[in-house]
Design brief:
Blueprint lengths: L1 H29 L12 H4 L3 E3 L2 E3 L14 E4 L9 E4 L4 E5 L4 E6 L1 E2 L8 E10 L7 H6 L21 E7 L2 E8 L16 E2 L2 H10 L5 E4 L2
Parallel strand pairs: 4-12, 10-11
Antiparallel strand pairs: 1-2, 3-6, 4-5, 5-6, 7-11, 8-9, 8-12, 9-10
């Protein structure tokens, strides 16, 4: 009997370890990550330098940022359907809702405009390496931006970054954007300007997941 109990305990431990391993692997896959040989997510690969749209994106110094802002799969029970984006400006998180009460969570940086609007909208446009149009009030504060009144072409120096998601309510542009950034150190912080900014590698990942017409919920 003692032998049988030991065998049962050993079997259950092996079973639970295998389940945990599968769960970790699935969580990494859901977040678009691969696993190191030791079973941990390979963030060095996820945030490595890459070529995109004719531009050489630099690697992200992710180790200099709190790990809670690294892309990861988390438990996220919600009434919103899979495919919905939920933005939590106060906590500097963006969630892409998955099935089964889970979500891919990304760290974000939030400028003043990021706190100026909340509610529900849809993604009407998606743009790769979009133009940036500085608001009039920004040009007033920083006159050297006058040269970009008609737009700054996409590129590594463009503050919109590699991708832009444009939020509309019906036929009204909210002027609220989810976009990349050329200031990676701003993730997890209250940035000086802009809406919702993400690491370039993360906005590319989100861009590839989200569909036109997807609902976006911005928490107050």
């Amino acid at each position: 009997m003692a032998y049988s109990r030991r065998l049962f305990v050993f079997g259950m431990a092996a079973f639970l370890a295998a389940c945990q391993s599968r769960s970790q692997k699935q969580a990494a896959l859901d977040a678009g990550l691969t696993l190191d040989p030791d079973g941990t997510p390979d963030y060095a690969l996820a945030y490595a330098a890459r070529r995109d749209g004719g531009f050489n994106l630099p690697a992200i110094d992710y180790l200099a940022t709190d790990p809670q802002y690294w892309r990861q799969t988390v438990r996220y029970p919600t009434r919103h359907e899979p495919g919905t984006i939920v933005v939590d400006p106060s906590n500097k998180f963006l969630y892409f809702v998955l099935e089964g009460g889970r979500a891919v969570r990304y760290g974000i940086g939030v400028g003043r405009a990021g706190f100026a609007w909340n509610g529900e909208a849809v993604i009407r446009f998606k743009r790769e390496w979009p133009k940036w149009f500085p608001p009039d009030e920004m040009i007033e504060r920083e006159p050297h931006l006058e040269k970009y009144r008609d737009g700054q072409e996409g590129g590594l120096n463009n503050p919109i970054g590699a991708r832009g998601l444009y939020l509309w309510q019906g036929n009204v542009d909210t002027l609220y954007r989810i976009h990349g950034t050329n200031q990676p150190q701003s993730i997890g912080t209250n940035a000086s300007s802009g809406c919702i900014r993400m690491w370039q590698q993360d906005i590319i990942d989100l861009y590839d997941r989200v569909e036109l017409g997807a609902k976006v919920v911005v928490l107050g």
